[in-house]
Amino acid sequence: LALDNYNLTLSWQVSPAIALGGGYLYTSGRYRGINANPHWNGAEVSLDYSLSKRTDVYVFDVFQRANGPHAVADVYLYSPSTSGTQNVVVAGIRHKF
Q: Which of 37, 42, 68, 73 has its CA at a distance of 20 to 30 angstroms from the CA of residue 15?
């Protein structure tokens, strides 16, 4: 299996307290021994709001779509999907010590 990744990310500090981010990831794959050339499209968006110098709240969403034989969506660090799509939303509050 060989994978090639192409990535574009953007970030914007809207104000001292608000940061926005977004990205797109395209992955193409080649399997040896079988006629399959899967590819994956992924998009992500994030919002971070600082409550103070050491505390912030955030929300992050990543979506992935897999295409091709033997391809399933598999967002890194999470369990693979049983289908060709997967969406992960994470929200939280962070305090830096």
A: 42
